[in-house]
């Protein structure tokens, strides 16, 4: 990595990255749940839809997925400080597709009464734990380190988090009156 380039980029906070991941995961989970009828087809459809939304869409949309666009972030290649190529995005999102599919399968089966389904969340948790531990560097999660990418803030997006915060503040002011 080029140490003189990366610190100049506006790093996206981990909380916003998790929120963007959650937005993307909910969209893909909803579509996968409609299409599939068992756990195998759910994982298969989840991974295919994840690759479409997080590789092809990101590649064509200046490094932004649906969640990244909603929260003003984008993925950059750390080596060249530009949008990552298809291969780098595929490496990055392949890891997230499998761990995200397992996590969504675990979350959707919480009502089964089997506490072992919580173990399906562990790969995703461990992936993001790497970013929590990496405080002084670039807060890269495991999938970012493998693909040599970083998530940065951008001016291009919907600013959903700012709009929701404004609505909550307005509601609080209205209630106080």
TrEMBL record:
The chain crosses the membrane at residues 18-35, 41-59. Residues 12-147 form the RDD domain. It comes from Okeania hirsuta. One of its GO terms (cellular component) is membrane. This is RDD domain-containing protein. The keyword Transmembrane helix applies. It is a multi-pass membrane protein. It is found in: Membrane. It comes from the Bacteria. Keywords: Membrane, Transmembrane, Transmembrane helix. The lineage of its organism: Bacteria, Bacillati, Cyanobacteriota, Cyanophyceae, Oscillatoriophycideae. InterPro entries: RDD.
């Amino acid at each position: 990595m080029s140490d003189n380039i990366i610190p100049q980029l506006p790093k996206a906070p981990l909380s916003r990255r998790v929120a963007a991941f959650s937005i993307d995961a909910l969209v893909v989970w909803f579509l996968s749940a409609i299409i599939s009828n068992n756990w195998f087809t759910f994982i298969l459809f989840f991974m295919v839809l994840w690759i479409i939304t997080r590789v092809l869409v990101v590649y064509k949309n200046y490094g932004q997925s649906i969640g990244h666009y909603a929260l003003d972030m984008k993925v950059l290649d750390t080596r060249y400080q530009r949008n990552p190529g298809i291969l780098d995005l595929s490496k990055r999102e392949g890891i997230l597709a499998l761990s995200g599919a397992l996590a969504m399968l675990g979350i959707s089966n919480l009502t089964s009464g089997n506490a072992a389904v919580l173990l399906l969340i562990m790969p995703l948790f461990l992936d993001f734990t790497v970013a929590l531990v990496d405080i002084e560097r670039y807060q890269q999660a495991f999938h970012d380190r493998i693909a040599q990418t970083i998530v940065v803030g951008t001016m291009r997006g919907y600013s959903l988090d700012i709009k929701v915060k404004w609505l909550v503040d307005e509601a609080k002011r209205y209630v106080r009156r």
